[in-house]
Task: inverse folding
């Protein structure tokens, strides 16, 4: 089977999830001194704006990884279809888990729910690549083994960072989300980037 239907469904779910994140931003009604009240209300929601930006960027990273994978994955089967469906189930959950840490920023259980959401999402995203490339099952046999290995390493970055965030949330839940800022930094490291060799 071709991958077109998977890609179309994935793009739609990601677009909806990323759009729904903005619904977590809401201000209380301002009083008579509107300028002061609005100032206080906006700064009082700073953590929600941070969570919105963080979740939006994390979903964007997941979408880019999925996009890169399916540039290489040339065909699909029923097992890969189900892997993607389960992956998208946790993509659709991200707006809820983001609202949870926005409403309960000091609660460890809220932070760990968010972290677990991203951990499972990262696992399924990684399983896509491992399943498709095992024995060149759904990719061309000319695919560079180095690319397969490097992208496998890329796949474990988010689950590991999510586990780190879970650990930090036990100590200081207010700051645990900052651990996710490691993801773009790690993915930019040469160890996780593929450069095609030029034969001389």
Result:
């Amino acid at each position: 089977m071709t991958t077109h239907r998977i890609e179309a469904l994935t793009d739609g779910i990601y677009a909806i999830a990323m759009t729904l994140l903005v619904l977590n931003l809401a201000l209380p009604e301002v009083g008579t001194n509107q300028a002061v009240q609005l100032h206080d209300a906006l700064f009082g929601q700073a953590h929600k704006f941070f969570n919105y930006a963080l979740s939006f960027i994390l979903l964007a990273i997941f979408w880019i990884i999925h996009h890169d994978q399916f540039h290489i994955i040339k065909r699909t089967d029923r097992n890969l279809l189900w892997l993607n469906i389960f992956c998208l189930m946790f993509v659709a959950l991200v707006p809820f888990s983001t609202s949870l840490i926005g409403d309960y920023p000091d609660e460890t259980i809220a932070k760990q729910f968010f972290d677990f959401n991203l951990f499972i999402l990262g696992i399924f995203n990684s399983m896509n690549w491992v399943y498709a490339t095992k024995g060149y099952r759904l990719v061309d046999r000319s695919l560079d083994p180095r690319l397969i290995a490097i992208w496998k390493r890329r796949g474990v970055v988010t689950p590991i960072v999510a586990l780190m965030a879970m650990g930090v949330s036990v100590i200081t839940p207010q700051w645990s989300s900052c651990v996710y800022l490691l993801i773009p930094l790690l993915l930019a490291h040469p160890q996780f980037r593929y450069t095609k060799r030029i034969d001389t």
User: Anything to note?
Assistant: The first helix runs from residue 4 to 20. The radius of gyration is 19 Å.
